[in-house]
Each structure stands twice: as structure tokens, then as C-alpha cells.
Amino acid sequence: MSTMAKLEDFRNEPFTDFRQKSALLAMEEAIFRVKSEELGREIPLRIGGRDIFTDTKIHSINPGNLDETIGWVSKADRELAEQAMQAALDTFESWKKVPPRERAQYLLKAAALMAERKHEFSAMMVLEAGKNYAEADADTAEAIDFLNFYAREMIRLSEINETMPLTPVPGEHNRLTYIPLGVGVIIPPWNFPLAICVGMTSAAIVSGNTVLLKPASNTPVIAYKFAALMEEVGLPAGVLNFIPGSGAEVGDYLTTHPKTRFVSFTGSKEVGLRISKLAAETASGQIWIKRLVAEMGGKDGIVVDETADLDAAAQAIVASAFGYQGQKCSAGSRALIVESVHDEVVEKVVRFTKQLEIGLPEENKAVGPVIDEASFRKILDYIEIGKQEGQLLAGGRQAEGNGYYIEPTVFAGVAGKARIMQEEIFGPVLAIGKAKDWREAFAMYNDTEFGLTGAFFSREEDRISEALETMHCGNLYINRKCTGALVGAHPFGGFNLSGTDSKAGGYDYLLLFTQAKLTSRKL
Length: 523
Description:
Blueprint: H1 3-6, H2 21-37, E1 41-43, E2 45-47, E3 50-52, E4 57-62, E5 65-74, H3 78-95, H4 100-116, H5 118-128, H6 133-163, E6 172-180, E7 183-187, H7 195-206, E8 210-213, H8 220-232, E9 240-242, H9 247-255, E10 260-266, H10 269-280, E11 291-295, E12 300-304, H11 310-322, E13 332-338, H12 339-354, H13 373-389, E14 391-394, E15 409-412, H14 419-422, E16 429-435, H15 438-446, E17 453-457, H16 461-470, E18 475-478, E19 514-522
Parallel strand pairs: 1-5, 7-8, 7-10, 8-9, 10-11, 12-13, 12-17, 13-16, 15-16, 17-18
Antiparallel strand pairs: 2-3, 4-5, 6-19, 14-15
Helix pairs in contact: 2-5, 3-9, 4-6, 5-6, 6-7, 11-12
């Protein structure tokens, strides 16, 4: 019996039902424990199994309560980044020889421990990333899913290595195997500070690579919790090196390093394109073309025709636009509605939006803060632009609270070429446009440089069929919101300037961190 046969089939980690009082109390207790036991600590770099504390620190704060320090995180410079590179290079020579099934076991152990401590990880995200209970819980569940899914995928690929049905040639034994690439740089975002960080990192290491993890500067503490968990389950020193630092200093240095074999990045279009440009230049001593796996921005939209369930469509628009304050690459920041039902849908969207309660994530309010002052200022600037480009129907102002709070904002009557309809804002701002019919709505939807997620609400099967062919995005959903991809069920990645369409949580994702080697032996 194979190792894979001994594992249960992959199943998504269930979400916590916070309507249950016991679940609510458990999360409140976890937040209390994290606040009393974990906040304000000094956190080291972790290079080759060694703790390194630096004088220069990243000051992580709670975006919902600016007086609360989450942690003081040591900050790498180029010298320390080079130390991490050398540690990863040395470790790769042994790690690449570890059998795939053994590498997978580290992920499975980590998934089991994270599931036991789910609320602890979620609580840290409530405090450091400004997520409410459901958003944080979904983030942790997705991280658990990535660990379980990629472990199983590594085992499956190793079995394919043994049974790959190549065309037989008389007198030869031919075999195709997938081998690791080398040392990779992992640059995750702050908006899914556990799930995406875990997914990017675990995919690379289970494939046999060693990594340099440079977490987002807004959420380094939750990334450290993950790195510490991997050490707890016995991952050999030097496989995962934790090196927070400046993107301009550490990020650029490692991206251009001749020994960097691949860069895995999730973040903005602008940073992604910069990484792509830097990685494309061949450094002195470099003997390969660096591989880039990039998931970048989005200007995602929901199209609604006159046959749709209008209540369901309006609820999905609001959930997609304002879930986690619109700070998702999949956020539905555009709604394109056919004119015969436009006014009715807009009225519903505005009504549902005004029902959203704003406040502290630890009090589980529907709308919390945006991540930092730079985002706060940028979003407010876009709102001022929106006032010139459309009709303000809800929100439009800073909200009360000792944090970066902005009211969920709705603009209608927005033209297709308007800036708030074209540019990624990454905040709680929704632009609504009117189309004469569903085909024009499709054209408006496609009129963007991005292509990540989209949704179409309709009861007409012929229109749905056309949407499936016409709406150009990596993840298209019918009669549901355009956020909330599940590992295994909705492999995630986009077209155009939304990235390299690397399908995270999909059955081909690990191939991005491997290279295929053909061996042929004459009998």
C-alpha cells in the first residue's frame, strides 16, 4: 500500500461558526491570551537555525488600536541576507535528498498543530492585520488547507515519478522525475499574512527547495509564528530562513542574487513588475533563468443582468467589496449592472452597505481598519477622485476610532474609463457602472489590465455559457461572490497584469517549484 493510500483524501478545514456562543467565547479567550502573553516581544531573525537579534527593528502595531504594539521584529540588512542565502545553499544539498514522503510529513504535522491552535493563530491576525473573527478564521483554515493539500500533492507527484507512462522504446528504460530547483525567495503579502505566507512557503519546501522568507513588514509577527511552528515540528535548520527586511534593500538584493533560483511573490502590480524586471537580468555567475511565480493585483467585478436574484447579487456585491475592508486582490471593487435593474440593485447595495458596523476587529465588527497610514491616505485620496467621477451614495469619509478606519464607500454612475473603475484601490471603495445589456456589461468587465476574479449573476443558461467563455479572468464565479476561493476546489491565480496565473491550491502548482529531468538507460 502506498503512503498516499494511508492518508485520507484531502478535505477543506471547516470554518468556525461564530454564531455559536462557545465558538465566540473561545475566540475571545484566545485574543485575551495573545494580548497578555505574546504582544510586545522582541522577535529575532532565524538564519540556519540561529536566532539573530538586530538593533534595527520593524515596529508592528495594531491598525485598529494604534497605541498597541504587536511586536518588535529584528530587521535584516544585506549582510544578514547573504548569511541566510549561504545557510539555504548549504542546507539545500541535504534537503533535496530527503524523500518526498518524508518532506510531506513536516507539513502534515504542522497542519495538525495549527488546527489544534486555530484560534491562537486567528487571534494574532485579528490584532496585527485588523481582521474580524470570520476573516481571520478563514485565513487560518486556508493555511491549514495549504499544508494538507501540498503534502498530499508532493506524495502524488513522487508516485507519478515512479509510474510516469512514457512511450516505451525497445531496449531502453526511460524515466521522468520532478526534482527541486534550489534556493527561493518567498515574498508574501500582509493581507493574508498566514494563508498565503504558508502556502507559498510550504509549496516550495515540500518540493525540496530551501527558502528565504521575507514577510510583509506590516504583519511579520504572524509570519514568525508560522516559522516557529515549522521548527517545532522538526523541520531541519536552514530549510526555512526567516528574514524580515526592507523590500528595497533585502528584497532587491535577493531578487538579483546569482544564487537565487526562483522568486515567489504575492502583492501589488507595481512591485511584481519590478521584481519581474530585476529577476530577468542575469547576474554575474548566474547559470539559470530565474523562475518567477507572481500573484499581483486585481480590479475584479460582478456583473448582474435583469434575470438575476437581485437580493443575492446585492449581498454578494457588498460582501465582495467590503469583506476585510476591500483589502483582497479578489475584492469586487466594480459592479456592472444592466440598466433595467440598475437602480433597484444600487438601492439594495447602498442599504446593505449602510448596515455594516465599523469598529475594532477584536470586538468582531463587520468593518475594521485598513492596514496602515499609507493605505489610509491613498484610499482617502481615491475617494476624493471618486467624488469627481461618480455619485457618492454611501460612506466617503474617515470613520471614528483610534486606527485607520474608513467608511465603506459606494459610487454610482461611474464611467468605464474612470480611475476608480480602472485602478486598484485596495480599500473599501466600490464603483458601480450601468450597462445597456449583459453583453455590454461583459465588455465593461473585460476593459481592464487585470484579470483575477469575476462573477456573473443570471438565471439564463445561454448567457452563463457566454460568460464562461467571454469574461476574461483566472477565477470566474456564477451566482456567488468573487472572493473566498477554497484550496483544492478553486485553484487561484489570474491573467494579464494579475500575475503569472500560477494556480495556488491547484494540482499543477508544485510543478512551478520543480524541474523535470528525463533519464534514459540502455538495457
